[in-house]
Structure formats: C-alpha cells, structure tokens
C-alpha cells in the first residue's frame, strides 16, 4: 500500500486553493491513508482471473434519444445556493488564476 | 529583432491544433436540458448538469453518432470500445468539480485531414494528421465582478450560469504538424476553415466561432534548424475567429524567436489571445496531466459501437468538401485561379447558396469575391461573417438581370444591406433607388447633355463614337446614376444618327 505523504496532501490542497496548517496536513494524510487502506483491501479479493473493470454491469451503449426534457426553473435551481445574483450562482473570489 | 523570413531561416515551426466543437444536438450530453444559445441564465439546467448529489448522467445517443461521424469524416479509426473518464479540477465552471471527458480511451483515433493552400508556387496540399477525436461536456460561463474589464484578476467574486455546462463538446486534436514552414500561420487557419466546412457539411454543429461553438487552441513551437528536437510550445486560447488563428500563431512565432534569440527559454504555458493588439498574454502555467487525476467514470457504461452501427453512419457521410468543390468548379466552369481565389476567400459555400437561390454562378462569384470581399477586408472580418445573405445577393442579381437595377445602383444596394439598413427591398425603398427607365426623362437628360457639349456631340455625329463617353457620363450624373448606361448609350447614339 502506498503511503500518502504530507507533500501529496499539500499539493492537492494547493490545487483546491485550501490553506492548511502543518498539523491539518499531517492529520489529513493519516485519514486519507486509512481510507485508501480500506479500499485497497479489494485487491486481496481480486485474483488474477478477475478482469479489472470500472463498472459492475456487463452492459455497453446505454443511451437515451436526443429529446428535450423539462429543466428546473432558475428559482428552483438557485434555491440551495448559499448566494446568488442576477439568476446566477455567486461564488467567492477565484484564486490563483489569470484569465 | 528577426524578420519573419529570418525566423524561418533559423527555426522550424511545429504546429498543434486543438479544436473544440459544440455539437448541435437538441439536448445536453448527459441530460435532457435544451442547448439554445443566449437563453436567460440558469434556465437550461437540471440536477444532472448542476451536479446535484445522486443525479446520474445518461448519454445522448445523437452526440455519440455525431462524434463517430466526425471521426469518419476525418479518416479516423473508430474504437470498438471506449470509456468516459473524470477530469478532476477545482474551478467553479463545472458544478460537479469534475468534467466528464475521455482520457486514454478516446472514441476516434489516427485520422487525417488534407488542407489545400494556394502558395505563390501554386496549390499545395498539406496533410494534417489527427491524433484523436473525443467526447466531453462544455463548462458553464463565469462573470467576474468587481475587477477591471471582467477579468478574474482583481475580481471580488464571480457569477455562474450553467446553461452551457453539459453541452456536448467534441475535441479534435492534431498530431504535431511539421513541414508547413513559412506557411504555418496560414495552414493553421486553412485547417480550421476546412474542418469548419466539414463539420457544417456533416450537420453536427452550427460552427459559429463568434458564439463559441467552434473554438481553437493553437500550439506552436520553434526549434533551431538541425537541432533534431522540438522546441518548447505555448498554447494560445481565446482564438475565436479564423483570422485570429493566423494572427495568434504569427505573433507567437515572433515572441518565441525573440526569446530564443535573447538566449531565454520559452515557458510551456497557456496564453490568451488579445483581439485588439493581435498579441498574446500569459495565462496560467499548464497544469500537469496527472493533476487532473483522471479515472474511469463509474456512472457511465462503455461505448462500444458495433461495426454495423459504424457502417450505417458511414453511409450518411456527405460528399467531402474538397470533392464537392471540384464538382462545383466543373459545373460552374470556373478557371483554376478563380477557384483558388474563392477557396482562399472562403466564399465557395456562400456562392453555392447564392446559386441555389437562382443566381448565375459567375455573377454570384463576382459579387462575393468583389464588392463584398472588399468591404470584409476593410472591416478585417471573414467574408462569410458579413451581414449580407446569399438570398440578398441573389435578389440583387435578379433585379439587375430584370433591368430594375444598374450595376452601379446594385452596388449601392449591397452597401446598404451591409450597413444594416435592411434587406435589398428595404434598402431600395429607404434610399429611393430606382432605375430611370422613363424614356422621356432619359431623352430629356440626353438633350440637355448635347446642348451643354455641342462640340462633343458634333464629334459623335462625325463618327467619333468613343467621344460619346463624355455625354453618357453627363447623363449618368444628371440622373444621379439611376439610369441604365447601356440604354443611355443606345438612345444617345440614335439621336446623333449613329445607330
């Protein structure tokens, strides 16, 4: 099992523009390692005759026809948003980007 | 600073083009929300495209078919089995915090597109190899509030409209293109133009660059000749017209050369094209692919088109634009040079539509390549972006043929339509344009001209026919250009005993 390093956590935190203290980073590294460790136990069950898959169903080409279905109203769409303005979702300042 | 010629002498340009095209499906890629352009904010959204917990994506069959059609038209292999992948990133333009895309298993691979370009040494064909064509979904639109000129930098907060989030998007990526040499900027433009024509012919997108349904990211690098390896590339985004493709690449070639000449290195980064200055500005430095933490999309099943499905789609392919043009050239009997001029000006399609509206091919070609191209050049826009339709041009040609307009008046009508004064009939009514066809009025004007220039009139009577030009000119001036010059000449020569 691979270890989740503090550097790994810090790098992902930076991508998410999250400011974490050294203590928080160390704590999260431990938690992430425990989560991944639990998931990794699947490896033990997977024998060499089990083909890797991204989906349990043996189906392909599950599609829908190109037919319009009703959308939400803007009021309904925005009803759960912490903030909105001019029928748009309002989000905090976007950091570390230039466009 | 090196001149363009010196740059080409010292460096070899390598191109790479990524084109994103929004499909013209009625609904989004993974939900039934409509895809109308310009709708009120957040009126075309649902739990799926808003990334609500528990909502599951459901693939649009038409979008898959459109992508396969694009792959076939670009001579690609269609993968018998392909999957969607999650591209994870932290940015609010996708409410899910990831974009569904394709990563290592794209649906179409290894194709090519032949681009014809008229060089000073004659027409040349450049083969642009296609690496992949894959499916993904478009992102929402952000509005940055509180900063200067709507940019993120300095903004206090941003507003998101998710109408566009989830619209089917197809990305077409070329392999590295070498060998275009000094024509690199023009070939890049010609490639995007040819691709646009193909997509339009396939009917899979409205391919409007100004509305963002066709977008181009232009990669360019320069390598010192003889070095045997590629230089560091930059990727320019925000290139939203054909003309900008050419300008952006030319500008980047100069910038790269300047850095290399100064002994500096070119930084691999994303740059943004500035329409006003024609130059690029640094954007974010390119995130490494692993930062997106791609993994197979667990909410979607693989796409595995059967050979039968692919062949059904192949049978729907329209004639290739290059074959189509060759057929039109023969049908209209256009000389090679004229045809090349039409292709380079991008007017073949509009001429064809004008002919379909009943116009004579030669007349249609003359208008689009002449007056309309001239104004388009002045305005620095593509001819097809001019605010005059093939139907307008066909109407004007018909009016000239019927003798209701002279060529000169027709030019005024074209000018009026381009100026936004309405359709030809409206321009004619508003400007009071009419051919003076009242013979009495014409004869009176001719008699006035003869009386004003008795010596010239005498020369004509004596058999000096070319002298009549001055009198005809006077009559045209008298009638404010609204007379039919050919008829004036006929009447004048008759009155002076020369018919």
Task: Furnish the topology, listing elements before pairings.
The complex is a heterodimer of chains A (about 100) and B (about 500).
Chain A: H1 6-15, H2 22-40, H3 42-45, E1 63-64, H4 74-78, E2 84-85, E3 88-92
Antiparallel strand pairs in A: 2-3
Helix pairs in contact in A: 1-2
Chain B: H1 4-10, E1 11-22, E2 59-60, H2 61-73, E3 77-78, E4 85-88, E5 98-101, E6 108-119, E7 122-137, E8 141-145, E9 157-161, E10 168-174, H3 184-202, E11 214-224, E12 234-239, H4 242-261, E13 269-274, E14 279-285, E15 295-296, H5 307-314, H6 321-332, H7 336-345, H8 348-356, H9 361-379, H10 390-401, H11 407-418, H12 424-431, H13 439-452, H14 454-461, H15 468-478, H16 485-495
Parallel strand pairs in B: 12-13
Antiparallel strand pairs in B: 1-10, 1-11, 3-6, 4-5, 4-15, 6-7, 7-10, 8-9, 11-12, 13-14
Helix pairs in contact in B: 3-4, 8-9, 8-10, 10-11, 13-15, 15-16
Describe this structure in words.
The complex is a heterodimer of chains A (99) and B (499). With 99 residues, chain A is mainly α. Chain A has a domain at 6-45: Histone, subunit A, CATH 1.10.20. Chain A has helices at 6-15, 22-40, 42-45, 74-78, and strands at residues 63-64, 84-85, 88-92. A two-stranded antiparallel sheet of chain A has the order 2-3. Chain A starts with 5 loop residues before the first helix and ends in a 7-residue tail after the last strand. By secondary structure, chain B is an alpha+beta fold. Chain B has 3 domains: 4-314, no CATH class; 321-431, no CATH class; 439-495, Arc Repressor Mutant, subunit A, CATH 1.10.10. Helix content of chain B is 39%, strand content 20%. In chain B, strands 3-6-7-10-1-11-12-13-14 form a 9-stranded mixed sheet. A 3-stranded antiparallel sheet of chain B has the order 5-4-15, with no helix packed on it. A two-stranded antiparallel ribbon of chain B has the order 8-9. In chain B, α4 links the parallel β12 (234-239) and β13. Chain B is elongated. The model of chain B has no long low-confidence stretch (mean pLDDT 91). At the A-B interface, β1, α4 and β3 of A face β2, α2, β8, β9 and β14 of B.
